[in-house]
Amino acid sequence: MAVNRQSLPLNTNIMVPILSSFTVVIIIVILSKLHLKKTRNLLPSPKTRNLLPSPPALPIIGNLHQLGPYLHRSFHSLSKKYGPILLLYLGSIPAIVISSADLAEQVMKTQDLTFSTRPPSSIANRLFYNCSDIAFARYGEHWRQMKRICVVHLLSVKMVQSFRSVIDEEASLLLSNIKAAWPSPLNLSKMIRVLTNDIICRVALGKKYSGDDGFREMIKEASLLLGSFPMKDYIPRLSWVDKLSGLNARVKKNFEMVDGFLERVLQDHAVRREEDVDGGREHHEEFVDFVDVLLSQNKNDGTSGGFRLDMDSIKALIWEMFAAGTDTIYITIEWILAELITHPSVMSKAQEEVRRVLGSSQSVTEEALNKMDYLKAVIREALRMHPPVPTLVPREAMKVTELDGYVIPKGTRVFINVWTISRDPKYWEKPEEFWPERFLKSNSVDFKGQNFEFTPFGSGRRSCPGINFSTLTIECVLAKLLLAFDWEVPNENKNEVHDMSEAFGMSTHKKYNLLLKAKPYSFPSAK
Ligand code: HEM
């Protein structure tokens, strides 16, 4: 799920848009003074706090003042000083930050069950129907059944293969639009964003909504809200600020829009199903979207081990596919292209491979992809340097436990900083260099969750169920883009295109758009 996004499933960027507002800072300072004594009593005793390395915390806000908008970078700096496990207070919430592969393995494998729940999030609670989704759901029977449905029915290898034609059609449409733009520059970032949104729309809802401005705004607002910082969750005594700042009203409005939209989608599908049955037609002969699958699960609820997939859970799951799927895939493709364009020799090698394997054929089959080792290495290298969810989705300790000899109280939040781990010189040669060849070695690591120095999709019970779908989409789209065009950076855009700065947002996407020229490529014999 999409995105450097803390609350999002994907959103680990807790930050600070609201907190940094002047008014709130003043309020905090006054309250700090007024309640200093009382607050001291609320913090754990010095003895408990000393158990883990921890930067000094302030009353009320804890360590929030030490965190910037790029949470993974703030955690990175703190881990340089305090080590691979450290304790922070996010307001009144204790949180540990993990920055080594060994400790990540402890959390996601050895003690996976202990760390299998998600912390509460008031915004996700509202937007995802009391956390009836997967990514925000607390560990338990509901989450287990929802994840099973997702893994077995929505994102199974067979289902993902059935989406191939959708991915192919949408990518071909993208190529036509790019061709039409030559020789003018184009905003490739924007085009890829629309592409991934269209693919997810068709796969999840059965049709595209990209032409609908209201739909785009609704998704954008939802992801902004999921990336925001509700006082209620971290400094409960300041929860009134959420009302004053308009946050509560925005959440309510967005929920009502999303709910109305999903109601209409479900209605449309239900009517179509009835028409198919009345007309004696076989329902969805060629392609079944997520809504169809979930509605049939809902109908067959007796066969799903007694689990009742109610309408709220269906809506939460459908909506989550957007939250988790759109940005992550878009961001990954954007970073890969940015790195390729910045490293022309890598670009040439990748293009040479794609053109050799595919020839003039536009069809990117599974067999063809299996011959593109270099392209796969490029994708891994981009995910290593730019993991879209850099601190994973936070977990929470379900009971008191021990990590690295430190006592971890029940309810402690856990962030795993994969951004730091996947550039740690202890595991990676030349970690700051974009060097896909590192993944061509016979003993190279994979991102499937078994190598804890490289887990952009997480690992264990809470790992990402969208890994096959993402990999297929990224590989197909990239192969087509490298096959069909030679890429040029207009002089006036050079600085922005090659600038690898990150933007603040739900996920760590590139700060500056890819404004490029795409020269259509013709195979020598076809000239
Ligand atoms: C490049 C693409 C993607 C990346 C890098 C990514 C990454 C992640 C990460 C890091 C997590 C949290 C793992 C953990 O806590 O250990 C996650 C969870 C999740 N992802 Fe993805 N994701 C991607 C694409 C997708 C797609 C396409 C979908 C669905 C269409 C999806 C659905 C989910 C869901 C439902 C969860 C929650 C799993 C749970 O809590 O049990 N993701 N993803």
From TrEMBL:
<keyword id="KW-0812">Transmembrane</keyword>
<dbReference type="InterPro" id="IPR017972">
    <property type="entry name" value="Cyt_P450_CS"/>
</dbReference>
<keyword id="KW-0408">Iron</keyword>
<keyword id="KW-0560">Oxidoreductase</keyword>
<dbReference type="GO" id="GO:0046872">
    <property type="term" value="F:metal ion binding"/>
</dbReference>
<dbReference type="GO" id="GO:0004497">
    <property type="term" value="F:monooxygenase activity"/>
</dbReference>
<dbReference type="Pfam" id="PF00067">
    <property type="entry name" value="p450"/>
</dbReference>
<feature type="transmembrane region" description="Helical">
    <location>
        <begin position="14"/>
        <end position="32"/>
    </location>
</feature>
<keyword id="KW-0479">Metal-binding</keyword>
<dbReference type="InterPro" id="IPR036396">
    <property type="entry name" value="Cyt_P450_sf"/>
</dbReference>
<keyword id="KW-0349">Heme</keyword>
<comment type="similarity">
    <text>Belongs to the cytochrome P450 family.</text>
</comment>
<keyword id="KW-0503">Monooxygenase</keyword>
<dbReference type="InterPro" id="IPR002401">
    <property type="entry name" value="Cyt_P450_E_grp-I"/>
</dbReference>
<dbReference type="InterPro" id="IPR001128">
    <property type="entry name" value="Cyt_P450"/>
</dbReference>
<keyword id="KW-0472">Membrane</keyword>
<keyword id="KW-1133">Transmembrane helix</keyword>
<feature type="binding site" description="axial binding residue">
    <location>
        <position position="464"/>
    </location>
    <ligand>
        <name>heme</name>
    </ligand>
</feature>
<feature type="transmembrane region" description="Helical">
    <location>
        <begin position="82"/>
        <end position="101"/>
    </location>
</feature>
<protein>
    <recommendedName>
        <fullName>Cytochrome P450</fullName>
    </recommendedName>
</protein>
